[in-house]
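User: I'll paste a sequence; please echo it back and then give the predicted structure.

Assistant: Echoing your sequence first, then the prediction.
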Amino acid sequence: MQQQYPQTSPYAQQPQPQPQPSYGHPPMGHGAGPEQLCVHCGQPPFGPPRPKRSRAKLWIGGAVVAALLAGGGGYAYWGTDWFDGNGEDVTFAKPKTPAQGAGAASGGGAAANGPDPDVSLPTGPASQFKQSTKLDDGTRISKTRLKGAKSGFEGDVWVWTPKEYDEAKYANSAFPVMIALPGGNGYPDNYWATMPNIGLQKAIAESSAKGTGLPFILVMPLLNPDNKNYYDGSDIPGQPKMGTWIAEDVPDLAKANFRTYKSRDGWAIMGNSSGAFVGLKQVMQHPEKFRGVIANGGETAPDSPLWKNNKAEMDANDPAKLAQKLIQSKGPEVYVNFQYGTKEGGRDRLEKFQRENGKGPIKIDLYEIQGGDHNGWDYVRGMKEQGLAALSKVMKGPKPSAG
């Protein structure tokens, strides 16, 4: 499938200072156009030869940002305030409990009608987080290094907590967690964290303020262990266990450091392109862990070349086959929100998956982003228009204490 690139993309030419749209610079697919070398890696637009695939690579990372900033002019949205305090230790200590009259009970969640047994307080041990970015609203993105106890893989994970997390009235409440996966190789950075002006954090904050969406904790891990291969978010024989990393180790990190829900109603995944496939696969494979997924412009079948000679294992990580098993077992119910832009291809693939698997316990919405292309900027717009609200309706949000 030929990748399309919006004419408005700053990646289509040498970066020049210019006014930025409200959601900031859109991360594009791999390459700058059919006649140019990729500004990200210097390779031809579609990189080294690989099997045909519809997952466009979104090659975005901290090194790219640094190169652009050093290359003359940079981008207007990288204001100096965003770097204030970077590298400082960040703790997620429990805020002060509400004043007298609050119905909170120590050791459990607190709602207006009393403690919530579904609340899980941080289990520890606490991770060492360092601030990587300070956002305009005062919230911070922080990074830690995680050695996965179950996968054995070691990599970076970024986190962001909404303003509500530090409010006293929510001191005894859990918060829903969204694991946000990037497109492309997702290594050595996760662009949801390293390029926050894409707007994901802002979109969640605004939807929460309007009451249309939940104030998710964002957990943003590496998607792959290197920038040479894609691993389908799976435990491919003989390879790093990236399926276990995402399904087990990353959630365990959140449980160790934050007030989370014990039930799957407090857990979701969101991803773009290759990350969308991983999110879809994880939800179909682990419906006992995750309630839903927003899958933006993604593939629906595994296609890593690393599956060679491991067809049985590949089939065990095929979302369609996993969906059929879930339908046959009659649950538990999961929610899938497919999003795609009208300027990109792939609608037929998503419609086929919806038609064949959107039944029984699997509820699937397909949202069309008008004028949208295969990039994070447009996908965030779609999430603001529909995705965050739709996902929030099936999930559990924080509950304030009484008083």
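The CA atoms of residues 164 and 170 lie 7 Å apart. Residues 1-81, 100-113 have pLDDT under 50 and may be disordered.
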